[in-house]
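Ticket #4471: structure output looks truncated?

Reporter: J.K.
Steps to reproduce: submitted the chain below (96 residues) through the standard prediction queue, then opened the result file.
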Amino acid sequence: LAGKGWNPAYYSCSWTWGEIINNEFPPDSLVTDFRIHLVDIDRLDKNIDSTFLQSKKFNDNLIATYSKTGNNEFMTCKFDPNKTGKYPKPKQWTEE
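Returned output as attached by the reporter:
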C-alpha cells in the first residue's frame, strides 16, 4: 500500500492502517505465507514483483509489514522492519 505522508503521531494514520490490515485477511484462512507492506511513496506501480521488493526504493521507504509466515499462529505488524529509523512504531499502536 502506498502510504505517502504517514505520520506515526497521527491517530488517523494508525487507525487507517489497522483497519486495512484487519479487514484484508480472514483469521481462519489456510494461507501460510501472507504480507501487506505500507510504503512511504506516492503510488505503487501496477506490477509489484520481486525486483521491486528487493529495490532500494522499497527498502528505504518501508514503513511497516503485516505478515504471517511459516507456522506462526497469529499475524504480526512490524514497524520500520529495515531499521532505517524513519518509521517508529506509533505510541498508540497495540497488538493483542
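Triage note (M.O.): checked the attachment and the full C-alpha cell line is present. The radius of gyration is 13 Å.
Status: closed, working as intended.
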